[in-house]
Backbone:
């Protein structure tokens, strides 16, 4: 994608991404918050595409759509006011957390702008899927295997945490055996 | 046009928004959403580096894959914890979980 | 060939998995699997006869090429593989019928097939490391199969005993391997025995491991306990293949063991051969008779390995595998007929079940070394090999006489004119077919001696008139003793019934000293150390008492005066303390308390505040690092 094309996608995309991210924490409706987060991370996937990472962009879109829909379900299950109809405030300590967040963001942004980053032009093609595949199945094989096993552990551990009464409790109705 | 500092600055703002969510929200799941945003910002950083600083390094893409894995793990374990807490006390509000009070 | 090697190990495993999932048709699946798994072994045998040799090993630890793992195809391994696969096929076919009424039949058949996988790995292993791996798997699977029958109370005990005894002896294999690696830098087959102590460790360890696996005296007790398992398991594991692994180890390690270790193994085998025969004469249970007979025959193989070399031992191993498996399978048929294996219950069973009796007779004639049955030729080779060694020869002949005697005794009981005319049970035909094949093999296998020795490249001692005559006379004496009803002296009979007191001996020689030692250590702890402390305590008390008496009388007055003076000083001091020192200490305590209360406010229990503090801390650390980098 040319520089102009990238800019044409990047700027509106970044604006939408940040706006939706901010609105995640400003709406009082849980379902809306989850969908806004989905929108934000999905637009981030578009930004990946614009930044010449096709594989990661598509993967981000796929992953986030699955994950955020699940998150929305969970929010509706565990929120005192899922629809936001009661207009209750879901924040605490608003002033201090906002100022700390703004301070950190500004500091990071200044750091980002003022640092003299190494620059290299994209010569020809960006790393394509094939190259990523070689990376994953070659040099980073061990890390990748480790990540896979970690996911497995997290799945088992999450299920155990979620099971009625934890790991050692008697079986309750509806439990998987 | 776009350059690396621009991407990093956008990511920094996104990180700040996520941090605000983590610190300012009362509900555990909203806090997890904040964490997701922060991780998303780090992924944006990595992609920016990959595009503008080390275009030939496929290991950057691999790093992004690992961060995505991390997001999935965080969601899995986090939801497990939320369910466990909710089952025991019928709430997932952080303000009600004050056992650590000294 | 490499493919066939791995196929012969892995096919039984695949078959085991398929059988486990097959449900009611498990017998067909298992039979097909076992037959399929036997094909590679036979192809390899043909190839090996044509001079083919192959090794498929990997260097998994690049720094230590001596620790390669893999499989090998050579004359010895392929002969063993064919024996295991063929006996395994017959036994699996038989087990399909034996377990006809067993609801857990798939599990039983899958266990047998899984055992075949491990056993093929053991005999095809290249290098002692691979052998050790499969050696352990075989032992564990054996325990599992012995305890298969959950209704049998002796099962778990027998399994545990078999496992623990063989495990204890396996320590020898570990020690031998470590010593071999330390001495020779490799655990590959065919290396020379290191000199000195390491060589001694290698020799002792290997012989001990072989003794344990092959149930040689005085470790033979576990084999009788293992008879609590299902009969096909006894036939496959505890007569034909697994217990033969000890003999295989001796033969495989022939170069390593030349000299005194083989001498030791030979004596152990010769003594076991006689001891097993004596024990077999006194047993009241058919399977236990056969178990004791197995020990005896394995002892003969030890003698063969020591005196005559590989061909002799392996020839007898093959002949014995067919004959003893046939005997066990016939015993299993009787067991189904009469629902038990005690000789009393089986009296006359042979007349009811003539097929089983014929199979039993074929196996028994072979094992009792009656010409022209298979084991006659192999046992005769052992006799001929032992001719140069008077002690072994005598023991081998006595064992031969005993073998004829105990088998004839059992056969007479089975053929006693006390038929009950019970109907044949389910699965009988399958059982008879499979067992009959083995019985036929035990008739014909005598012919394989010459080709076998040619394949192994080791000589079979020529059969001499003397050896044949001696063997026949021995067998005749044994048979005659039974026919004429000679009675053994009561002491010998009692000893034999008690398994020649091997258990008691082990108890006295191993258990008792260990227990005594630990009791001694406990007593040392109780008496000497505790006693010393107690004595010190008592002494101190006594001194204190004496002092007390002294004080009462003389010193008291002085002390009282001093005390009164001290009291007065103390009162003065107290006033000082209350006024000044106490105030200072109280003040300090109060300020610490206040600080604590202040600190406590940090600990709010509100997680988001903790999170915020974490972020602030991180920021602080980053700022510090940045400052350090800039400055």
Residues:
């Amino acid at each position: 994608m040319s520089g102009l094309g990238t800019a044409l996608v990047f700027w509106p995309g970044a604006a939408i991404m940040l706006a939706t991210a901010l609105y995640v924490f400003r709406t009082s409706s849980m379902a809306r918050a989850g969908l806004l987060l989905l929108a934000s991370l999905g637009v981030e996937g578009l930004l990946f595409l614009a930044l010449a990472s096709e594989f990661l962009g598509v993967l981000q879109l796929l992953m986030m759509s699955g994950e955020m829909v699940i998150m929305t379900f969970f929010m509706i299950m565990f929120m005192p006011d899922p629809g936001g109809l009661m207009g209750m405030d879901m924040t605490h300590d608003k002033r201090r957390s906002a100022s700390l967040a703004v301070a950190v963001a500004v500091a990071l942004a200044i750091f980002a702008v003022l640092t003299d980053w190494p620059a290299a032009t994209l010569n020809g093609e960006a790393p394509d899927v094939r190259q990523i595949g070689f990376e994953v199945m070659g040099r980073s094989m061990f890390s990748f295997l480790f990540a896979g096993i970690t996911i497995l552990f997290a799945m088992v551990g999450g299920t155990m945490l979620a099971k009625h009464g934890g790991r050692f409790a008697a079986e309750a109705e509806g439990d998987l055996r | 046009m776009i350059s690396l500092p621009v991407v990093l600055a956008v990511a920094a703002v996104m990180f700040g928004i996520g941090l605000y969510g983590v610190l300012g929200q009362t509900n555990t799941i909203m806090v997890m959403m904040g964490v997701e945003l922060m991780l998303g910002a780090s992924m944006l950083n990595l992609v920016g580096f990959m595009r503008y600083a080390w275009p030939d390094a496929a290991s950057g893409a691999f790093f992004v894959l690992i961060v995505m894995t991390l997001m999935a793990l965080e969601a899995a374990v986090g939801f497990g914890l939320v369910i466990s807490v909710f089952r025991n006390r019928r709430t997932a509000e952080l303000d009600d979980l004050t056992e650590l009070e000294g | 060939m490499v493919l066939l090697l791995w196929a012969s190990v892995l096919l039984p495993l695949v078959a085991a998995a398929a059988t486990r999932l097959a449900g009611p048709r498990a017998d067909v699946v298992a039979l097909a699997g076992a037959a399929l798994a036997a094909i590679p072994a036979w192809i390899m045998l043909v190839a090996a006869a044509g001079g083919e040799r192959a090794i498929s090993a990997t260097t998994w630890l690049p720094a230590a090429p001596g620790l390669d793992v893999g499989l090998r195809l050579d004359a010895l391994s392929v002969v063993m593989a064919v024996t295991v696969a063929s006996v395994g096929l017959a036994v699996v076919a038989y087990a399909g019928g034996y377990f006809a009424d067993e609801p857990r039949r798939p599990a039983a058949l899958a266990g047998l097939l899984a055992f075949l996988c491990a056993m093929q790995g053991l005999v095809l292993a290249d290098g002692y490391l691979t052998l050790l791996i499969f050696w352990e798997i075989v032992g564990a699977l054996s325990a599992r199969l012995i305890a298969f029958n959950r209704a049998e109370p002796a099962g778990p005990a027998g399994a545990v005993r078999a496992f623990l005894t063989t495990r204890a002896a396996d320590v020898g294999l570990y020690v031998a391997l470590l010593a071999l690696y330390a001495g020779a830098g490799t655990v590959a087959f065919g290396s020379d025995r290191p000199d000195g102590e390491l060589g001694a460790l290698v020799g002792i360890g290997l012989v001990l491991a072989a003794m344990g696996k092959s149930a040689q005296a005085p470790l033979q007790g576990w084999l009788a306990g293992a008879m609590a398992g299902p009969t096909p398991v006894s036939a496959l594991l505890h007569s034909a293949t697994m217990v033969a692994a000890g003999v295989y180890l001796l033969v495989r390690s022939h170069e390593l063991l030349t000299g005194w270790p083989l001498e030791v193994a030979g004596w152990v085998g010769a003594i076991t051969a006689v001891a097993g025969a004596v024990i077999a004469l006194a047993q009241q249970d058919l399977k236990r008779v056969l178990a004791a007979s197995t020990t005896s025959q394995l002892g003969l193989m030890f003698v063969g390995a020591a005196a005559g070399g590989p061909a002799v031992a392996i020839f007898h191993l093959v002949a014995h595998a067919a004959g003893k498996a046939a005997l066990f399978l016939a015993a299993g048929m009787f067991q189904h007929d009469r629902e038990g294996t005690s000789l009393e219950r089986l009296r006359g069973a042979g007349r009811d079940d003539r097929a089983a009796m014929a199979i039993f007779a074929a196996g028994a004639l072979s094992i009792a070394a009656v010409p022209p049955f298979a084991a006659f030729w192999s046992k005769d080779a052992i006799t001929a090999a032992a001719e140069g060694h008077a002690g072994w020869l005598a023991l081998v002949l006595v064992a031969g006489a005993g073998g004829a005697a105990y088998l004839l005794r059992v056969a007479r009981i089975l053929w006693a004119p006390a038929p009950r005319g019970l109907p044949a049970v389910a699965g009988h035909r399958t059982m008879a077919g499979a067992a009959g094949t083995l019985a036929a093999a035990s008739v014909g296998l005598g012919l394989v001696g010459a080709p076998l020795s040619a394949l192994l490249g080791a000589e079979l001692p020529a059969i001499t008139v003397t050896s044949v005559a001696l063997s026949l006379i021995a067998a005749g004496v044994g048979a005659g003793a039974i026919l004429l009803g000679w009675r053994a002296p009561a002491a010998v009979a009692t000893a034999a019934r008690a398994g020649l007191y091997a258990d008691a001996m082990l108890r006295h020689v191993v258990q008792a000293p260990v227990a005594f030692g630990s009791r001694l250590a406990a007593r040392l702890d109780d008496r000497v150390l505790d006693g010393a402390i107690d004595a010190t305590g008592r002494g101190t008390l006594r001194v204190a008492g004496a002092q007390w008496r002294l004080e009462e009388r003389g010193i008291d007055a002085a002390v009282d005066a001093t005390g009164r003076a001290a009291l007065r000083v103390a009162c003065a001091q107290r006033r000082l303390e209350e006024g000044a020192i106490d105030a200072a200490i109280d003040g300090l305590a109060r300020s610490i308390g206040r600080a604590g209360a202040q600190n406590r406010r940090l600990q709010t229990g509100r997680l988001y505040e903790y999170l915020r503090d974490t972020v602030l801390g991180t920021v602080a650390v980053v700022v510090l690092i940045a400052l350090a980098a800039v400055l």
